[in-house]
Structures are given as structure tokens and as C-alpha cells.
Automatic annotation (TrEMBL):
Name of the protein this chain belongs to: Matrixin
Domain of life the protein comes from: Bacteria
Alphabetical list of Gene3D superfamilies matching this protein: Collagenase (Catalytic Domain)
Amino acid sequence: MRFPSVRPRRSGTRRALGHAVTAFVTALVAAIAWQAPAGATLSGNGMAHADFQIKPYSYNSQWQGPMDKAISNWNVTATPVWITKSSSAPSWVTAASYSNTWYGLYSTHWNFGRYFDIKLNSRTIAADASNFSNFVTAVFVHELGHGLNLADNPSTSQASRMKYGLWDSQTTPQQYDINDVNSYYP
């Protein structure tokens, strides 16, 4: 006599776990399958979306105007970028004197979502800038580029704000940067 096979019944918790594992594997396969377009120089450490918020900052006019200009310079590009300030934003920027040699520093954080902090080094900027306002704007545009998944020093002969240098004159995202942002956030 043959008995029909009896499949053990999954509990609601096991079924939910199975669905969660399936969703995770599907997302992981999609992430692995996605590749940056040829020529794009991306870091993958930026925000999930090109529209994001940072906490409001308040500095004297020597800093405030150039920093606001950096945000505006990204917002007017032909990209989906829209950076705004909000007191509830998880990301922030700080301008202060640091003993390090860098001009700006971008750091990604994970805690119930992705966010970042940007540090602008007033000591090195003040020491090296021949045009302080432009220098601050250029450095902040560069650091916001990291928030948009752009990597440092792309290997290209094209102009890029993500390359080091030209801090006193190149204050806007360049076409190479715009193309990379558009390739990451289609």
C-alpha cells in the first residue's frame, strides 16, 4: 500500500522568511548584474537617489555663499540632481579647521539607511586659495559629487570637477561628471 506523500506545512514565519530570502537574492542578482556604462568612473558610495537633503548649515558670508553656490551648481545641471536643506536630513556638512592635509572629506555612513557627512578644511583652503570663494565652491561641488556616486580622479582627458586641481577656477560640475551622474541615475 502506498501512502500519499505529505509535504510539511510551512508556518507563516517560515513562509515570510522564504519570501524575504527570495527578495534579497533577486535584489542581489540585479545589483551584481548592473554594471556602470563603459567609461563611467563611479564610487558606489553615494546616495541611492540623486535628490537628497542635507542639514542646514550656518556660517559667515565668506563660507555660506560659496557653499550655497555649490549646491545650486549641481541643481542646475541637466541631471536628476536636486539637493535641498532640511533639518530632518540625515546628512550634513561641516566647515572647520582640521590638522589633515585634505581640502574636503566625504564619509558614507550606514544606519537604517545611507547618509554622509562632508568636512571642509578651512585651514588648508585658506592657506592655498588665491580665490577663496571659488575654492570653497569647487571643493564642495567635488564632495557633493561623491554623494552622487562619483569617484576621485577619473582617468579621462576630459574636464572633470572630480579631478584634483583647478580649485580656484573650476566651480561647476563638468560634462564628464554630468554624464556619469546620468549613467548612475537614469
